[in-house]
UniProtKB/TrEMBL annotation:
The species this protein was found in: Quillaja saponaria (Soap bark tree)
UniProt keyword list: Nucleotidyltransferase, Transferase
Taxonomic placement: Eukaryota, Viridiplantae, Streptophyta, Embryophyta, Tracheophyta
SUPFAM superfamilies named among the record's database cross-references: Nucleotide-diphospho-sugar transferases (SSF53448)
One Gene Ontology MF term: glucose-1-phosphate adenylyltransferase activity
Similarity-based family: Belongs to the bacterial/plant glucose-1-phosphate adenylyltransferase family.
Residue stretches in coiled coil: none
The protein's name: Glucose-1-phosphate adenylyltransferase
Claim: Nucleotidyltransferase is one of the keywords in the record: yes
Gene Ontology biological process: glycogen biosynthetic process
InterPro entries to which the protein is assigned, alphabetical: ADP-Glc_PPase, Nucleotide-diphossugar_trans
């Protein structure tokens, strides 16, 4: 295949881009969203993100005695009950 045989165009993208092709980079990109000034803004009113709801069963952890959650992303399906200690929580 030779590019001169096709209509090839380029676009210079100046926004946020992160290669999440491996699990470690996917993990790091998710945690980078918790930075005080993240490179990528999820709540930009000028450029909203739309997604579909996921109706998934919750994760169960049974017989836990004490719980401390530190520097973590707590999912939308999570339920934290009395006695749970949250550290480094971001709004």
């Amino acid at each position: 295949m030779v590019t001169k045989d096709y209509n090839v165009q380029a676009y210079l993208f100046g926004g946020y881009w992160e290669d999440i092709g491996i699990i470690k980079s996917f993990f790091n990109a998710n945690f980078a969203l918790m930075d005080q000034l993240p490179k990528f803004q999820l709540y930009d009113q000028m450029e909203p993100l739309f997604t579909s709801p996921r109706f998934l069963p919750p994760i169960n952890i049974l017989s836990a005695r004490e719980c401390s959650v530190k520097h973590s992303i707590v999912g939308v399906r999570s339920r934290l009950e009395a006695g749970v200690e949250l550290k480094e929580m971001y709004n």
